Fold this sequence. Notes:
Cytidine Deaminase, domain 2; eight-stranded mixed β-sheet; binds zinc ion
Amino acid sequence: MPGFIQFDADSLIVLTSTLLAPKPEEGCALLIGDNNIMASNYKTKGYQIKVIWPCCNIWEPGLLSPCRHQNSEVRAPQKTCSRENRFAIDPREQLLAQKWARTKNLKILGSAHSHPDGEAVPSPTDRALIFTSGLMVIVSGIGSAQAWWMQKDQNQHPQELIILNCH
Ligand SMILES: [Zn+2]
């Protein structure tokens, strides 16, 4: 797990505007950069986000995520599933991004998506669909970003990571 997440230059502004552009639908993107940087005051190495790779939200009913609430605590009437509360990134897009990143000596460090109608915290669906531990950045409807280390083991809570914004 990285000690911090550092956004280069304007990449955090680019990320929030990219993710909120499809509002009311969820926007999504891949985060590309360096996974091995140091920063003063931090003993652990961090992730440096250099490039935001915008992706189309290709979610549709039946694709990837089951349309149901995993969390029995959710008592509110179930909202219909749509791209307004679900997202999916095309695996072909990921492959393209990965190829491009390699040519620049960079890596895909994680993914990002927006909650146009909610807070920047992982939803039960976000947690249920994690297959490997890793970075997930979420942008709220009002444009604030939070970074999370998602755990493959759903019994473990996602851990919030510190975001450093470098200009
Ligand atoms: Zn989400």
